[in-house]
Every structure is written in structure tokens, then in C-alpha cells.
Amino acid sequence: MDRLTIGKVAQLAGVGVDTIRFYERKGLLDSPPRSLSGYRQYSLETVARIRFIRRAKELGFSLKEIKELLDLRMSPETTCEDIRQRARAKIRDIEGRLEALKRMKAVLEKLADSCQGKGPLHNCPILEALEERDEKTTPE
Asked: How many helices, marked H, and strands, marked E, lie in the chain?
């Protein structure tokens, strides 16, 4: 039988033991059966599931989205189109974040270019820009 300890599962899946326990608490992994001595006994399927979770995280899926993907994967009604729609939604999300990062980069470049890199810290244009108060949100 392919009963593995939590340490062996962690090693095979490339994660820490705490990560496995965290995934169990979040409902991404089922609680495994225990041996008579109380040790958790995992199957090789758990390793595959953790690897799935890791790859999905690397692609930007949140734990909530990963749980949904795992649930869809187990549902006989799920189609490839359902999963494709999730992937397209994640692509749109990533594109939005990329645009936001480009805007942040442009602002930081302007701030860095405005700084001579000389003079006292209290005259630093970067710090001054970060300390500017928004007239609309600053209490009077």
C-alpha cells in the first residue's frame, strides 16, 4: 500500500510539512486516515494534488480559485470549456495587474529621474512625493 508520512509527502511534493497542514485547513487536501499509532497516512494521490496546487499557484491562481478548480475537476458535469473560461478570466486578471505594474513603474521612473541623488534627505523629491497628502482624503 502506498501509505506515506507527512514528511515523505512534503519531500516528494517539494513543499514543507506546514504547507501540507495549511492546505488541509483550507480544504484543499482531505484529512488523511491515521495509523494505529496516530500518524497521518497519505497516498501518492496527495503528492499529485499538492503538485497541482503548486503549479496553479505559480500560474497566479489564488487558493480560493485553486479549490474551485479542484472541485470542478472532481465534478462529472465539468467540461473543458468550464476550465478554459477560468483560465481566460485569470489571463484578464493578470493583464490588469500588468497594466497597473506598468503605471507604477512609470511613476517610479519619473520620481527617480527627478531626484539628483544629492542634498539633504528632507529635500528628497521621492520622499516628498510619497508624503504628499491627497486633498480629498486628508481630514481638516
From this structure: 6, 0
14 inside domain: yes
How are the residues of the chain apportioned to helix, strand and coil, as percentages rounded to the nearest 5? Answer: 65, 5, 35
Domain, as residue range, for 7? 1-62
Percent of the chain with pLDDT over 70: 94
Whether the predicted pLDDT of 118 surpasses 90 = no
The CA distance from 3 to 32, in Å, is 10
* Rounded CA separation 115/132 (Å): 16
Residues 6 or more apart whose Cβ sits within 8 Å of residue 7:
17
Of the candidate ranges 9-18, 36-45, 55-64, 125-134, the one whose mean pLDDT is the lowest = 125-134
> Per the domain annotation, does 67 fall within a domain?
no
